[in-house]
Amino acid sequence: MGVGGAAERAGTMTRIARQTRAHARRLRSEMTPQEQRLWRELRDLNRRLGTHFRRQAPVGPYIADFAELGRRLAIEADGGGHGGPADKARDDWFVAQGFRVLRFWNTEIQGNIDGVMQTVLEALDGGGPPPPSPPHEGEGRRGPLRSRSDRTGAGQIEDRQS
Q1: Which of 90, 113, 143, 161 is buried most, with the most CB atoms less than 10 Å from its CB?
Q2: Is 152 part of a structural domain of the chain?
């Protein structure tokens, strides 16, 4: 989703392209109702637990719907415009940077926000993996994505099915 630039060429997340930052600002003002609902809950975690979730956060060449950079956790709210090879490549990039990625369908956020937040809390605590998420479009229903971890235990994709 992000725009290339020096950070993308270098494969690092140290520099964020000016266009990516501008695009993130636009996305913050155009959040879906599901993103707004999840953001309210994540802001509450920020206040209660001292987390530091950001919304529409530029990370390297991409923009995460929500990210807790210190804990290397990215959260994506998926509607009809998500899925497929682009999201898989994006998830792979986040994992390579040491992030754990959680994806939730918009219907799950709308109808089961308590379950969504429980999964987020477990991810923050480093708890066991949540139930599988929806597969990327075109991958069928073969269960969760394969998890990869580096030596610190970071760098996992958590994929949930509703």
Answers
A1: 90
A2: yes
